[in-house]
Amino acid sequence: MTFLETLARGAGAIAAYAAVGVILMIVGFYVIDWATPGKLSEIIRKGRNPNATLLAGSAMAAVGLIVAASIWSSGGRLAEGLAGTAVFGLVGIVVQTVAMLLFDKTVGISVRELVQEPELQPGARLLSVTHVAIGMITAVAVI
């Protein structure tokens, strides 16, 4: 394989992984949107709500960790790596959502209430760290 063929193959793999990663982040964003009252993008863009922004951002970071670990663990096998990234990313999103619901039921930290608060709340900080921790746990499980 020539150097240019290697570059083209690598660039194609990067584009494919990036596409899967972007799709997973969009799915993750809409799952967070589902768990919040109102339209999350409006709450962030127009309402400039720091709690909604922190929760959505931490969810995106967690999905990014899972995608990166899936790429790392693929060992250069593109088809298996893309399939694993999609599956593991979706599992991570589901686990994050379940964790948010569990925190709401067991600890009493409600995402729906947090995004209605105009000031940054401790509960948003805790849930955002939880998102990233779940992302790390899922990422390490993938590796």
From TrEMBL:
Location of the protein in the cell: Cell membrane
Keyword Transmembrane helix appears in the UniProt entry: yes
Alphabetical UniProt keywords: Cell membrane, Membrane, Transmembrane, Transmembrane helix
Membrane listed as a keyword: yes
Record membrane topology: Multi-pass membrane protein
UniProt xrefs under Pfam families: DUF350 (PF03994)
Entry's transmembrane regions: 12-32, 53-75, 81-103
A GO CC term assigned to this protein in UniProt: plasma membrane
Family according to the record: Belongs to the UPF0719 family.
Name this protein carries in UniProt: Uncharacterized membrane protein YjfL, UPF0719 family
